[in-house]
Design a protein that fits this description.
The longest helix has 29 residues. It is built from 2 helices and 9 strands. It starts with 6 loop residues before the first helix and ends with a helix. Helix content is 29%, strand content 26%. A hairpin with a 2-residue loop joins β8 and β9. The protein is of the alpha+beta class.
Length: 190
């Protein structure tokens, strides 16, 4: 089989070849430089784009900038606990789509409660009022934390720790009253 070409066809191929040659020359420095990076503005669309083996975008990692959403409040913090028991500290960050929502807890003033915090767990040893501080790094703005204080009332343990002292006090009072009654009885009945 022999190919025959009209003269006009050759004139169409030459500009195409020149265009391909120009594209190859302009792309060559990019392909030779493995550290080449580029950024682009990306607009979200409702349809997913699948990137996977076999297409040119397999290693494509877009740089997307999202607007910063500051924290405006932390709420729903427990307000009471019992001495000697652990209390898991948690709160609700407003707005729910804030850029940073991780709360770090610290004791601002233990108020004589012996309060300590390990991670998100508050432990106390005595009754009183403890002031804890909730901090969200970069909560208000980049480089500016959101900080809020909360007061938690710590009541005495209603279990055996308090009860034993109550029973001892009552026993001492009973012994004193019995002794007084015996003395009164002996004096009245000689």
């Amino acid at each position: 089989m022999q190919l025959k070409m009209k003269k006009s066809g050759m004139f169409a191929i030459i500009p195409m070849a020149i265009l391909l040659l120009f594209m190859a020359i302009s792309v060559a420095p990019v392909l030779a430089d493995s550290d080449y990076t580029d950024t682009a503005d990306i607009e979200a669309v409702d349809s997913p784009v699948l990137l996977g083996a076999g297409n040119d975008f397999e290693d494509f990692e877009p740089f997307v900038t999202m607007a910063f959403v500051p924290v405006t409040d932390i709420s729903d913090i427990p307000t009471e606990t019992t001495a000697g028991t652990s209390l898991e500290l948690s709160g609700t960050v407003t707005p729910s789509d804030a850029s940073n929502i991780v709360i770090t807890w610290s004791v601002k003033d233990d108020g004589g409660t012996g309060a300590t915090i390990d991670g998100n767990t508050l432990s106390t040893t005595r009754s009183g009022t403890v002031t804890v501080e909730a901090t969200i790094v970069d909560g208000t703005d980049i480089g500016t934390p959101f900080v809020k204080e909360f007061t938690i009332t710590v009541t005495e343990d209603g279990g055996s720790g308090t009860s034993i002292w109550l029973w001892i006090d009552m026993a001492v009072v009973a012994v004193i009253l019995c002794a007084a009654g015996v003395v009164f009885f002996i004096r009245k009945n000689p």
